[in-house]
Design goal:
single chain; mainly alpha; 4 helices
């Protein structure tokens, strides 16, 4: 889709930074667009919220949130 079009020189493509940065042939022409930024929410079934594996995943995401920020 958009990545192929941008790489072919068709025009500018609004891509998530993680996708665009992974393509050596592409160059950023503008910075992040606040209107295209969204908050992420991680949901789970209430009965599973306090299971060990779900708690471990939530704890990991929270502890690594700064490192994960560019790809989320």
């Amino acid at each position: 889709g958009l990545i192929y079009a941008a790489k072919a020189g068709v025009g500018v493509a609004p891509l998530p930074m993680a996708l665009g940065d992974a393509e050596a042939d592409l160059v950023r022409v503008i910075g992040p667009v606040p209107e295209l930024t969204r908050a992420w929410r991680i949901l789970t079934h209430p009965d599973l919220r306090h299971t060990a594996r779900i708690s471990a995943f939530f704890d990991f995401v929270l502890s690594e949130s700064e490192a994960l920020h560019p790809i989320l």
